[in-house]
Write a structure and sequence with these properties.
mainly alpha, globular, about 240 residues, disordered N terminus
Length: about 240
């Protein structure tokens, strides 16, 4: 793969660009989506789920992908050297995507049959798909690329993960959740961000964390129902807890 630093870009990656776009994504995906669901309340949970996801997230995903292409950041965002392509080869890192996938499969395998309604599963699948696509494109994609222009992988890992955690806590702050609980939420979600970052480094392809992010959210949504967020308090059993640890 060509060295990303030598490829020509229409816009040179800058930290402020990545941070700004991450803030825009968090504000629109969280704030505007909440405004929509409050302005147009739906009695049907499926309609409420669709309203809070598709009108906002699809334009964000399309906009992020178009920006990457227009700015000339494609090689920086979509691809990096995989752990098994570096010297030394770090095959062990492939355990991260394998265990994440195993956890999601285990959750889905234990779901009662009544949860597997075709249209409900399709709706949740599409919704979590755009969530996974948007969050990975903006955080592990654009923000990471902007940081790596001047800084190393470790700082990029820390900043993107903390930003990912903070973005997921916007609703908690606006809702008056105590700061201690919000800080715990940031830490827990930042850990998830580190895992998805590890998936990207392990495989070298951004579509892999996108897919695993979507599958993980899908499994938790199916387990918790449409009214519960992906991070809902769900009893996943000891096996899934061991896999996550």
């Amino acid at each position: 793969m060509p060295d990303a630093s030598t490829t020509e870009s229409r816009i040179r990656p800058r930290i402020w660009i990545g941070v700004l776009l991450a803030i825009v994504y968090a504000a629109v995906a969280g704030g505007v989506a909440n405004m929509l669901t409050e302005a147009f309340p739906q009695t049907d949970p499926a309609a409420d789920f669709a309203l809070g996801h598709f009108p906002v997230l699809i334009p964000l995903v399309v906009g992020g992908v178009l920006f990457i292409r227009w700015a000339g950041w494609s090689e920086r965002v979509w691809r990096t050297l995989a752990a098994f392509e570096t010297t030394p080869r770090r095959w062990w890192m492939l355990a991260i995507p394998v265990l994440l996938l195993a956890q999601a499969v285990l959750i889905l395998a234990t779901m009662p049959a009544e949860r597997w309604q075709f249209w409900l599963v399709l709706l949740i699948g599409l919704g979590t798909g755009v969530v996974g696509g948007g969050e990975e494109v903006y955080f592990r994609g654009i923000l990471r690329a902007s940081l790596l222009e001047r800084h190393g992988e470790t700082l990029a890992l820390v900043v993107t993960s903390l930003a990912f955690g903070a973005a997921h806590s916007l609703g908690s702050l606006l809702g008056g959740v105590p700061l201690a609980l919000t800080a715990f939420q940031v830490a827990a979600t930042a850990f998830d961000g580190m895992l998805y970052y590890g998936v990207f480094l392990a495989t070298g392809r951004l579509w892999v964390p996108i897919a695993l992010h979507a599958i993980t959210d899908f499994s938790l949504r199916v387990a918790g129902g449409l009214n519960a967020g992906p991070s809902a308090d769900i009893d996943l059993g000891p096996a899934t807890a061991v896999l996550e640890i």
